[in-house]
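Hello Y.,

Per our agreement to keep a running log of every chain we model this quarter, I'm adding this entry. I've kept the format consistent with earlier entries: sequence first, then predicted structure.
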Amino acid sequence: MKATELRIGNLVNYRGVDMVVDTISSNEQCILLDTAMAPYHQNIDNVGAIPLTEEWLVKFGLKRSDTDLNRFYMCDVDIYIFTDKERKPTHIVFNPSSGTLYVTLLHAHQLQNLYFALTGEKLTLQH
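Predicted structure for the entry above:
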């Protein structure tokens, strides 16, 4: 993962612990992670992306809907996330009244970034 993919507030994984990006260094080599105990500086090479799963969609507050053919999740800005037979998110559909955009996202921070790009607001955990 590259620091240029991240925004402040994105969720990342460091050594099996999910953390929030608090600051990105000007040279994009280090990030400051917000932990429960104290801020923690870490080289970007040691930080990993969080795979986007149904569990994460629920944590972000998306609502599940099942049809005969599909299971999908939706949020309040016309973003629909469809899952495959193994219930892994497969693609994102943004469907404003003027058209449709299909995007494939694999990681939680990518969904956070898409949501921010479309709404101007952060997508945060709802639990």
